[in-house]
Specification:
heterodimer; A: Ribosomal Protein S8, Chain: A, domain 1; 3-stranded antiparallel beta sheet; B: 230 residues; Rna Polymerase Sigma Factor, Chain: A; Arc Repressor Mutant, subunit A; 0% strand
Chain lengths: 238, 230
């Protein structure tokens, strides 16, 4: 073995496994350049291994274990807090998005998307219509107006809300709906009909009483010298 | 024509056979490593881990006492100095306390701990890299109290830091790890491959590169080195 081969072997070979009988060792024993180099390399790695392998940890294992337990518990709690905070943040963002985004989608920018529309009423009074639609116009800027004596209601809301309000009113504001029978005009008509029916009954009762009276006067016995006395009136059987 | 198609048809079968053979060889290599292990020691480790995962603080303290020197030694592979290795060791046991339930007793606890140490050191290094390199400089760190009461320990640690700086300062992380495990701690390349999850061929290649890089400065003093490098 020459110096080149020896250097190649020393560059990548294991110095731990280098036996005294190996070719490298035998060459190094007789070579004035390779011998000291091999010794230096061995010493350096041996010293490094000794320093690092014999260095003890300075921390007490009991303290390390206690600290590990405490830190672990604290991190676990921290993880729970972070998770809950993340959920709360997510819910807040979802709520904010669900509140704000529909306004934007409606074609406007916040309150700019509101429109005003007057809805005619056929049988509901404006107050009744207002009572029905008030849950649907509770948002910011939403409102309804009623004018006394005009059977219509004016609504200021987004297009989708207006469409919904119309849909709701359609269910109540039609002649077939039971709510129409409860309107003031309908009540007045019903009362008038009842009054007319009552007047007819009175007239019929009077005519019947006249007939009875006339019949009683014709059936009574007439004595001589007596004036015919009027007969007792019979109350008509009801 | 038919021969070519036959070759094409055979190719997947041959590669499958080759991969099976490779797997078998690797398993045989692993089995050849196995005898150095003491199975009763593994059983004790598994029992300690089981008790610690059930919340037994005494078992966890016993586990720390048992493995702290080894974890500290492994931490030195990845650290710039012994103080950083102490920090890594502490962090490793915090993670072990949290994740001891993940340990499966079919593998040695030592190997699992090594993987935890390796991952922890990597993550701490990244975190410190983000916070700035000022923290990594030994001069920026406050001295520990025990150094004032233990001057010998202080000298030992300074020597260790010097060794780390001289040997590993310019070495890539993987080469440094493999050189330390094989040439300084005395593990065989097969054991290192098993512990790091690398292939034995890669371990040997990295080992040769690391040795060459570390020994290069000394080899350069040889008169014939310049001729060799040409």
């Amino acid at each position: 073995m020459n110096c080149h081969e020896c250097l190649e072997e020393l560059a990548t070979g294991s110095l731990r496994e280098l036996s005294a009988e190996s070719a490298v060792s035998r060459h190094a024993a007789g070579c004035p350049d390779c011998g000291p180099l091999l010794t230096q390399l061995r010493d350096r790695e041996y010293q490094a291994a000794t320093v690092l392998n014999t260095l003890p940890p300075i921390s007490d294992p009991v303290i390390v274990a206690e600290s590990a337990g405490k830190l672990s518990h604290r991190r676990r709690m921290g993880g729970v807090v972070v998770t809950l905070a993340s959920i709360a943040l997510g819910l807040s963002m979802w709520f904010a998005a669900s509140t704000l985004i529909p306004d934007i989608i409606d074609g406007g920018h916040g309150m700019g998307g509101l429109q005003t529309e007057t809805i005619p009423l056929s049988c509901l009074s404006p107050q009744q219509a207002g009572d029905i639609i008030s849950p649907y116009v509770r948002g910011r800027g939403r409102i309804y107006y009623t004018a006394p004596g005009v059977s219509a209601i004016t609504v200021r809301a987004s297009p989708s809300e207006t469409w919904r309000i119309k849909d709701v009113l359609k269910n109540f504001d039609n002649p077939r709906a039971t709510t129409c029978g409860a309107s003031g005009k309908a009540n007045a008509d019903a009362l008038q009909r009842q009054l007319e029916a009552g007047a007819t009954l009175d007239q019929e009762q009077k005519a019947l009483e006249e007939q009875i009276r006339a019949k009683q006067s014709s059936d009574a016995p007439v004595l001589a010298g007596d004036k015919p006395t009027p007969g007792k009136q019979k109350k008509p059987a009801r | 024509m038919s021969g070519a198609s036959g070759a094409l048809r055979l190719e997947p079968y041959i590669s499958h056979q080759m991969s099976r053979r490779r797997k078998r060889n690797r398993a045989e290599a692993m089995e050849s490593v196995a005898p150095f292990r003491d199975r009763s020691t593994y059983a004790l480790d598994a029992q300690l881990a089981s008790l610690a995962s059930a919340g037994d603080d005494t078992a966890f303290t016993a586990l720390v006492t048992r493995f702290q020197p080894a974890v500290f030694r492994w931490s030195l592979i990845f650290a710039q100095d012994p103080d950083e290795a102490e920090d890594i060791t502490q962090e490793v046991f915090v993670r072990v306390h949290r994740k001891i339930g993940d340990y499966r007793s079919d593998a040695p606890l030592e190997a699992w701990l090594y993987r935890v140490t390796r991952r922890t050191a990597t993550q701490l290094r990244r975190k410190r890299g983000r916070r700035g390199r000022l923290m990594l400089s030994p001069a920026a760190r406050p001295e520990r109290d025990m150094y004032t009461t233990d001057p010998g320990g202080r000298v030992d640690r300074q020597r260790a830091a010097t060794v780390i700086r001289e040997l590993f300062s310019d070495l890539p992380r993987r080469q440094r790890e493999i050189f330390d495990l094989v040439d300084l701690q005395g593990l065989s390349p097969a054991e290192v491959a098993e512990r790091t999850g690398m292939r034995p061929v890669s371990v040997r290649a990295n080992l040769f590169k690391a040795r060459k890089a570390i020994r290069d400065s000394l080899l350069a003093t040889h008169p014939a080195y310049s001729e060799l490098s040409r």
